[in-house]
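Thread: quick sanity check before group meeting

JM: Hey all, I'm pulling together slides for Thursday and realized we never actually wrote out the predicted structure for the chain we discussed last week. Dropping the sequence here so it's in one place. If anyone has concerns about the input, flag it before I start.
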Amino acid sequence: MLFCSCKEKSENQKTEQKSESNIESKAELKTESELDIDYSISAELFAKDVLKENLRKHTFYATDLNKPKHIEIFDNVGLNNVIAYSNKNYPKNSEPNYYEHFTLFVANYQSELNALKTFALIEMTSKENPAEYLLAQKKFYERIKALNIGTKPGGMIVQSGKQIFSLVKTCRETPIGGTWYDYEKKFIKYLTKRGDEEFKVLNSNCGMNKYELKTLKASR
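JM (edit): ok, ran it. Output follows.
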């Protein structure tokens, strides 16, 4: 049993090392100007488009004790802060703190490499049967719990430039009408400068109880 466990751990570590190598290669292929792209302004424009005069902005840091649990999906390495947007009319009698109180979370990293590595960690966390040695790590287990918060109501997680975005969905209607798929496409449009760009996204719809890796194509 011990031999099998060690073998599984060794194989998974090799997979992680290969994944990190692929991430670094992907980042190195881009020019310096591309690596410096900051989509935080684009995200705020989307939030303003959705929330209009009801826009409310929050800033969270890794050291904050009172922050939404969902923020724990973002790795702290290279993390500057997490900006979240919510409707100032919801909830009415308290400060927003739960996942569905928000419209969008934006994790701002020091570099695209930090963001790419964190998205790979989130993708690994979303798998149905992660390796046992990972489950034994408290940090990894806490990330699973934080990620699972968004699986039942739904959500979409995507990385672009130095940011990772977690778009909140619910089991109700979208904030602007139309389908949730249209809502996702609307958000993706704010993250692209080309009409045919494809994005790898982690997506969950109401009642799915898991995130699935999909490709979403931007269209203008």
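AS: nice. Residues 131 and 141 are 11 Å apart (CA to CA). DSSP finds seven helices and seven strands in the chain.
JM: adding both to the slides.
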